[in-house]
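Question:
Write out your own:
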Amino acid sequence: MKNTVLYTIAPKDLAAHLFEVTLTVDKPDPDGQIFFLPAWIPGSYMIREFARNIVRINAQSDGEVVTLKKLDKHTWQASPCKGTITLEYEVYAWDLSVRAAHLDQTHGFFNGTSVFLSVQGQENLPHVVDIRRPEGEELKTWRVATALPQLKAKRYGFGTYVAANYDELIDHPVEMGTFDLATFKAHGVSHDIVITGRVPNLDMARLSADLKKICEAQIALFEPKSKRAPMDRYVFLTLAVGDGYGGLEHRASTALICSRNDLPVKGQKEMSEGYRTYLGLCSHEYFHTWNVKRIKPAAFAPYDLRTEGYTSLLWLFEGFTSYYDDLMLVRSGVIDEAAYFKLVGKTINGVLRGSGRTKQSVAESSFDAWTKYYRQDENSPNAIVSYYAKGSLIGLALDLAIRTETKGRKSLDDVMRALWQRYGRDFYSDLGGAGVTENDVERLFDEIAGLKLKRFFDRYVRGIDDLPLGKLLAPFGVEMSDKRKDAKPGLGIRTSRDGNDCKLANVYEGGAAHRAGLSAGDILIAMDGLRVSASNFDTLLARYRVGDAVTLHAFRRDELMMFDATLTPDDAPQVTLAGQAKPAAHARLRAAWLGTKSAG
């Protein structure tokens, strides 16, 4: 095909974890074509320098060697040539995550940002990729799963796939190997579930039924009349491992990783916590199909994948998505109100636990994602606030406030639909779309809700005040309580297991351990002369009372140190939510919010 950018990608050496990629350009820049690999992947706001995994690269034109000069850590320039130029390179793929690429004898996976060099100046041409089968008789059962449109390939088959441009090419992750597969339709659109990894007695029928409910609820939220999804086909790509969790959104698919124990088992009807968590992850990434993949912050329209893209709106794009992910579980009937209130309570407790919320606003947290949120350390709870978690509570607070002030006539749903209609629906169409600015967001809220919300934004988005959730929940017949008055003695720490040792993962500011001089990374070995281990620390601590003095011995690096601490009440929040049946007006308001037939 002429006037296209053509790639081939093949699993070259599974044991060495190498993909081999070729890139052919028909009409390279006569002054010397420039190529670059993205430094980050949309949805994960951290510079990852994927080019470091290119282990060999060369170029030729009409059989002649072409010199490649490296301009910076992820950019190459070819020497001038008149004919077609072809690059050949190998990519090391050993990142078992949703963000990069992974290859071994069990499967292959890649995001385009990790393997496909961009051709500068030709990003808007059609891009074709030939995905080739690995060699070996035992690998003939491998298939391909991706949402990329097929060109000369059967669905789930090796062959050629096509994208309208580079941005679309890198927005469709690819899984290859042997996998479990199921398909369902949500409002007429095919949705594939692909599960890679060994999962005994996987209940695909239940998973399909639950995801269908969640997907249809989300489609109806944004398009209540037409029920029209923004994609022709969607793929849930899940890698099941012994222990793992994560997801990354794409325009017509999502890459997920989970523990195999989180997936439903045939014959088990109860909703396990792990399965509920997995459905919440699927719900979160699916909601991104609208919120961030098409409704975008202005800084991402278009993406500059060579450097950081700063926005103070991640509290909306990630936070509101986190609000709706669990809300969609209850609205779709997958979980009940009590389970939903438990999830909200857990989020509230997580936000209130760290003192970082008193130092950083969610707008600042969004802007600093590149250097703080995605590069967390042992002091992060004392220094930052999560734009995911507090952002979800801001979404909750705004939804409740709008519903209350308008007596149920308006809600956050109306704001999200307005964002979709004005900024998202046409983003990938010929009409094109623009990103949303901070001022756009605030004006839209005032317009759609019919309220003046500047004070709210000043206090809770740009400011660091705690949200008045108890007051906002009351008109919905939901009681919020905090049982910290019954707190047991504590040191103000979070521990982790290091072998059988009890290691301090976090020392919370103002707690007993902080006052005594303990630090994150210290290994507790004794309390009042009794040996401390990862398995007995809580049991030992439970024998004391608030106000008791204890002597602690700990290793810091290889030095033994002693600390005198006075136990304080464990001030970890213990917020719980409970719905009340009366008065009926509250129950009706709650039912409209949660999409339940009855409340109480």
User: Anything to note?
Assistant: The two ends are 63 Å apart (CA to CA). The chain is about 25% helix and 25% strand. The longest helix spans residues 204-222.
